What does this fold into?
Amino acid sequence: MSQEYETILYRKESGTATICLNRPEAFNAFTAQMNKDIIHSLRQAEKDDGVRSIMITGAGKAFCAGEDLGGVDEKTNHAAFLRKRYHPMLKALKNTSKPVTAAVNGTAAGAGMSLALACDFRLVKPDVKFVSAFTGIGLIPDTGFLYMLPRVIGYAKAMELAVLGKPLTGKEAFQLGLATEMIEPPEWEEKTVQFTDKLAAMPTTAVSLIKRYMIDSMHEPLDEFLEKEAQAQRIAGATADHKEGLAAFKEKRTAQFTGK
Amino acid sequence: MSDKQVIAFTEGKVGVIQLNRPRVMNALNRQMVAEIVDQAEAFDRDENIRVIIMKGNEKAFAAGADIEEMMKETPLSLEMADPFSSWDRLMLVKKPLIAVVAGFALGGGFELALHCDLIVAAENASFGFPEVKLGVMPGAGGTQYLTKAMGRAKALEWIWLGEPMSVQEAAHYGIINRITAPEMVEEEAMRLAVQLSEQAPISVRLIKEAVNKAVDTPLMEGLYFERKNFYMLFDSQDQQEGMQSFVEKRRPTFKGE
It folds into this structure.
């Protein structure tokens, strides 16, 4: 049974769950409902053993235009706003053990850019735009933007993007290492699915453990990290996929991972 | 269905007490607490056991107390039933008690973990005293244990607000000893228990007693107490074995004698 959501389309195909932000008339700008729908759909994908890879993309021209500024005025308490709506979404994304790919089909602006940054991989078209629109309206980039971006592309470049807010094209994002693949529009559908299906065919437990611990390595002392590494490898070493990988290696064939 | 609410078994020299009311997240009722304490005392008397582990399941160590059981209480019914007295007996257990916490350790569950000597917690463990949200407060030692563990200001904040405490926060205040991957929490706790079970048992026992003294006696009294325990160890074979093996550059084998 596929659950129906108001603001997104959720579908599952061959190991990949796709969360498609579906407010094309508003360039997929966030609403409170969309924040909730994203959280619930991530949980749905997390619980579903058949899902081994997750893709987030946008319907229509944009990926996500960030917060719908129509609802923001001088009475808005921005801290409460983030705590209630955006931070739970960001945490849900981080707590999803399966790899999440942002298929950035069009403009990713403001918190929409933050959403793309919080994913584990980004795929882009050459001409899409990443826009940190925040300083343009006198705000700081939020929803984890300042945490994720320097970790992905380094401090200097992150500072430039966060402060100057100059739009970044898909091509530039790819050159900076922010995007994993740059895909020409005619091949978009095919190549994005190929990428997420490739992830879905990987040893899912190992991928989850990499996701769980690699981010920690950026702020933890080596000794602490090494202890986590030992435990994580013990967990991976107990999987059927490890056994299959070893057998395939010895038999000189391609491993068939099941995610178990 | 068995009426027993805890499962007990041994692995080598380690005695394991598993809280076993998974359908209610191991919510503590009186019978369960009594069984836990009885079992801890039985392991304490069992000369084949050197370390005791207390654990729940992967979702919860123990998520609070049985609220339905408590709803009908009156001050006098509580006074007469004296439900917290069995908890006091846990403090008298001489062997090391290790709590293994995955998932929730809330209210009475948190208090139970704090009654143990060491806590090994999974990354997904969540501690807290939500009693205030029910119009009551911790009653099995929470205000005392947490304050001694983390100091007055932080203890007040946590117990007043009743919010969940992450493992990072718990570790920051020295409440827990180890953080592990959720999948590894039992194995890591057992590794710690085995390591502890190989230490000289009488040393371990007298160290626990002396360290506990440090918590609530004046310093001089604690120092005298420590000294007596130190002297007492010179009557053990393990002391001779320990020092002899040191001189002979070999690993000691301790018998607890």
About this structure: Chain A has a mean pLDDT of 95. The first strand of chain A starts at residue 8 and ends at 13. The two ends of chain A are 23 Å apart (CA to CA). Residues 204-250 of chain A form one domain.
